[in-house]
Amino acid sequence: MNVLDIMRTGPVIPVIVIDRLEDAVPLARALVAGGVRVLEVTLRTPVALKAIEAIANEVEGAITGVGTITQARDFDSALKAGALFGVSPGLTPELIAAAKDSALPLLPGVMTPSDVIAARAGGFTELKLFPAQQAGGVGMLKALGGPFPELRFCPTGGISAATAPEFLALPNVACVGGSWLTPASAVAARDWGRITALARETAGLSNTAD
Ligand code: 3PG
């Protein structure tokens, strides 16, 4: 799958933080049971790569990716863990070079028009707008659609169940990301039923981007 296929499969990508390795598989199963298959597990905890490996090996139907890629070496680690895609909060020449050398499809982060121009020059046409709400939200994405109509975005950061539909209605938004499907309180309590219920709430959401 390429990045656009993965984004369209969303169209909501949960941003997941795993603190306890034993939570990885049940949490991923809870999301998949609710119809959310594209999962971004962030490299923010010591167990993140092991969590990705466990989900990739054990959770049928999951399309597992690595989030918070910030260094070239993350590409290899992600592939070894079985990740099918990567997401970065920003983009640097080092990351562009690493992405070109790697089989891991990358959804890179941008926040400004200059970031967008640099990412497009690096060969990327699917971009994560991060942090989306703080960068201007729906108004920012409409404005970016003027000079960059061919680009597709995955806004992430500050989006909720209530605001996701406004983003997904934009012609340049292929998916949205966020942590609202995996609230820290539900994960801490291992309340997988709540996570499945939150995932199910996204069932009616679809993107309008082509
Ligand atoms: C992140 O990287 O943490 C994501 O952008 C999630 O942001 P959110 O918690 O505002 O959804």
UniProtKB/TrEMBL annotation:
<keyword id="KW-0456">Lyase</keyword>
<comment type="subunit">
    <text>Homotrimer.</text>
</comment>
<dbReference type="GO" id="GO:0008700">
    <property type="term" value="F:(R,S)-4-hydroxy-2-oxoglutarate aldolase activity"/>
</dbReference>
<keyword id="KW-0119">Carbohydrate metabolism</keyword>
<dbReference type="InterPro" id="IPR000887">
    <property type="entry name" value="Aldlse_KDPG_KHG"/>
</dbReference>
<dbReference type="GO" id="GO:0008675">
    <property type="term" value="F:2-dehydro-3-deoxy-phosphogluconate aldolase activity"/>
</dbReference>
<dbReference type="InterPro" id="IPR031338">
    <property type="entry name" value="KDPG/KHG_AS_2"/>
</dbReference>
<comment type="similarity">
    <text>Belongs to the KHG/KDPG aldolase family.</text>
</comment>
<protein>
    <recommendedName>
        <fullName>2-dehydro-3-deoxy-phosphogluconate aldolase</fullName>
        <ecNumber>4.1.2.14</ecNumber>
    </recommendedName>
</protein>
<dbReference type="Pfam" id="PF01081">
    <property type="entry name" value="Aldolase"/>
</dbReference>
<keyword id="KW-0704">Schiff base</keyword>
<dbReference type="InterPro" id="IPR013785">
    <property type="entry name" value="Aldolase_TIM"/>
</dbReference>
<comment type="pathway">
    <text>Carbohydrate acid metabolism; 2-dehydro-3-deoxy-D-gluconate degradation; D-glyceraldehyde 3-phosphate and pyruvate from 2-dehydro-3-deoxy-D-gluconate: step 2/2.</text>
</comment>
<dbReference type="InterPro" id="IPR031337">
    <property type="entry name" value="KDPG/KHG_AS_1"/>
</dbReference>
